[in-house]
């Protein structure tokens, strides 16, 4: 009896089972967000995205080309879903560069604008 091995099963994947999300032919090459280089290193957004991308890249590289292992370790559903999210993040990063969200506000916020019920404001967050 013929038995498919894991890597061969990955190649034979014909559908994600998700409407509108096609199977990606080569989902494991390195994915980077070079647009982040246009955002200051001190930006919390950049730091968070870089940390997430580094972790996901580590997981994908440690899977040694086995898509099912990468999917399991990432716990983001199918690899195509993770790529779809990465594409959205790339679009958002470009918008963050356009908006220059790291710069000070053009207008001083109204008193109490950033206060929320039940949350105390610290000295660092109130400036």
Strands, helices and their partners?
Blueprint: H1 6-11, H2 44-62, H3 67-74, H4 79-99
Helix pairs in contact: 2-3
Keywords: Electron transport, Membrane, Mitochondrion, Mitochondrion inner membrane, Respiratory chain, Transport
Region (Disordered): 104-127
Membrane topology: Peripheral membrane protein
Could you characterize what this model shows?
- Helix content is 43%, strand content 0%.
- The chain has a domain at 18-99.
- The N and C termini lie far apart (70 Å).
- The protein has 4 helices and no strands.
- The chain has 127 residues and is an all-alpha fold.
- The chain has helices at 6-11, 44-62, 67-74, 79-99.
- Helix 2 (44-62) packs antiparallel against helix 3 (67-74).
Properties at a glance:
127 residues, mainly alpha, 0% strand, elongated, disordered N terminus, mitochondrion inner membrane, membrane, transport, respiratory chain, NDUFA5
Summarize the model shown:
This protein has 127 residues and is mainly α. The protein has a domain at 18-99. It has helices spanning 6-11, 44-62, 67-74, 79-99.
Gap between N and C termini: 70 Å
Beta-strand share of residues = under 5%
Low-confidence stretches: 1-10
- Please give the share of residues in helix: 40-55%
By DSSP (H or I, 4+ residues per run), the number of helices equals 4
Query: Which descriptor suits the 3D outline?
Result: elongated
Largest beta-sheet characterization: none
Q: Give the class from helix and strand content and strand pairing.
A: mainly alpha
Please tell me how large the radius of gyration is: 20 Å
Element order, helices and strands?
Answer: HHHH
Quote the average pLDDT. 79
Beta-strand segment tally: 0
Membrane topology: Peripheral membrane protein
Keywords: Electron transport, Membrane, Mitochondrion, Mitochondrion inner membrane, Respiratory chain, Transport
Protein name: NADH2 dehydrogenase
Family: Belongs to the complex I NDUFA5 subunit family.
């Amino acid at each position: 009896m013929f038995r498919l091995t894991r890597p061969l099963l990955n190649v034979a994947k014909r559908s994600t089972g998700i409407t509108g999300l096609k199977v990606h032919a080569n989902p494991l090459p390195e994915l980077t967000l070079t647009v982040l280089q246009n955002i200051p290193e001190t930006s919390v957004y950049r730091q968070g995205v870089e940390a997430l991308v580094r972790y996901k890249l580590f997981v994908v590289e440690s899977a040694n080309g086995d898509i099912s292992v990468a999917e399991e370790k990432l716990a983001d559903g199918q690899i195509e879903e993770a790529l779809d999210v990465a594409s959205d993040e790339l679009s958002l990063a470009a918008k963050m560069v356009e908006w220059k969200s790291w710069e000070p506000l053009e207008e001083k916020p109204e008193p109490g604008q950033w206060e929320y019920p039940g949350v105390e404001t610290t000295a660092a967050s109130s400036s």
